[in-house]
Specification:
- With 328 residues, the protein is of the alpha/beta class.
- The protein has a domain of 227 residues: NAD(P)-binding Rossmann-like Domain (Rossmann fold, 3-Layer(aba) Sandwich), CATH 3.40.50.
- Strand 5, helix 6 and strand 6 form a beta-alpha-beta unit.
- The structure holds uridine-5'-diphosphate.
Length: 328
């Protein structure tokens, strides 16, 4: 069994990863500054004998050095995430997403840790191709558009991680997450699924940006964290980049219709221009579909849960939360 450090372990994906690692018998240390992470994400694991939770920032190099002591595997998920947050505060995005990654990579080499780098489909930028393979070109917009700061910051992290692999033999896996959704994801930072489900359960209109013809593939967080851990355990995966997600595209309008259908809500769908939400210089990615061949060839599997199953899970979780709120 390994000792794992999960940065961002109180976040949406990090908390599911923590839970999965504990279920496999590993020891887990979570490091999270609770900026977007939430203590309630780990509340059900409180007191677990193999879990330690430290509240602190990855921007503190002394804390990082201490957190890495005796660790075998680092899962680096802490980052400024969410299109809205990132567009609102590009300085924080760059500071949080670049310097601490380099510090952690250096510590991982010194301590001979394996390293998982959580990257993102945002690194492809607005590449116009139908499906993106990992070797695709990265196509970012102008630096005057803050949205691209996120993808660029993660692309630099990838360059650093691959360089540490080549130069020092660091056993690193880079996973590019594509629209991961599921219970515990909140809509404050722009994520569409929890926003639509909240709106539907409140009987409010579902707010679709632009014409709703933009396409995404949504993957269940449970399958995603299982994929991550399996990749880390496979030596042939080390030094490689993987798309991780679903490859079944849906338009945002179809997503809204499906949420309405599955909640039984009477909500309408309202389209609003991007400018009204993110400011005049916002650019969206029209289509985002991963090619999962590399993942499938390496693991023999890929995430397959249907959108319907995923939405039912999110809706059930949200209904539970509402029941608890009403009781309190
Ligand atoms: N979106 C929307 N309504 C919302 C939030 C998002 O129509 O309340 C759209 C957004 O413009 C994007 C897609 O849904 O085209 C997915 O957005 P999200 O922020 O979840 O992830 P992204 O793929 O943009 O990182």
């Amino acid at each position: 069994m390994s000792k794992c450090l999960v940065t961002g372990g109180a976040g949406f994906i990090g908390s599911h990863l923590t839970e999965h690692l504990l279920s496999l018998g590993h020891e887990v240390c979570v490091l999270d500054n609770l900026s977007t992470g939430r203590p309630e994400n780990l509340a059900h694991l409180a007191g677990h004998s193999r879990l330690t939770i430290r509240t602190g920032s990855i921007t503190d190099p002394v804390l990082l050095a201490d957190a890495v002591r005796d660790i075998h595997v680092i899962y680096h998920l802490a980052a400024a995430v969410g299109v809205k947050l990132v567009a609102d505060d590009p300085v924080r995005t760059i500071e949080t997403n670049i310097y601490p990654t380099e510090t952690l990579l250096r510590l991982a080499v010194q301590s001979k840790c394996r390293f998982y780098l959580a990257s993102t489909s945002e690194v492809y930028g607005k590449n116009p191709r139908e499906r993106w393979t990992e070797d695709e070109d990265l196509v970012f917009g102008a630096t005057s558009h803050p949205r691209w700061a996120y993808g660029c910051s993660k692309a630099i992290d990838e360059f650093l991680a691959l360089a540490y692999h080549r130069k020092f033999g660091l056993e690193v896996v880079i996973g590019r997450f594509f629209n991961v959704v599921g219970p515990r994801q909140v809509g404050h930072y722009g994520m569409v699924v929890p926003r639509f489900v909240d709106q539907a359960l409140a009987g409010e209109p579902l707010i679709v940006y632009d014409d709703g013809g933009q396409t995404r593939c949504f993957a269940h967080v449970r399958e995603v964290v299982q994929t991550v851990v399996r990749l880390m355990d496979l030596p042939i995966a080390h030094g490689q980049v993987f798309n991780i997600g679903s490859d079944q595209p849906v338009t945002i309008r179809q997503l809204a219709e499906e949420v309405i259908r599955r909640t039984g809500a009477k909500s309408a769908i309202e389209c609003v221009p991007y400018g009204a939400v993110y400011g005049a210089d916002f650019e969206d990615v029209r289509r985002r579909v991963p090619d999962l061949s590399r993942l499938e060839q390496t693991l023999g599997t890929k995430p397959t849960l249907s959108l319907g199953t995923i939405l039912d899970d999110v809706i059930a979780w949200k209904r539970d939360c509402l029941r608890v709120e009403r009781r309190d």
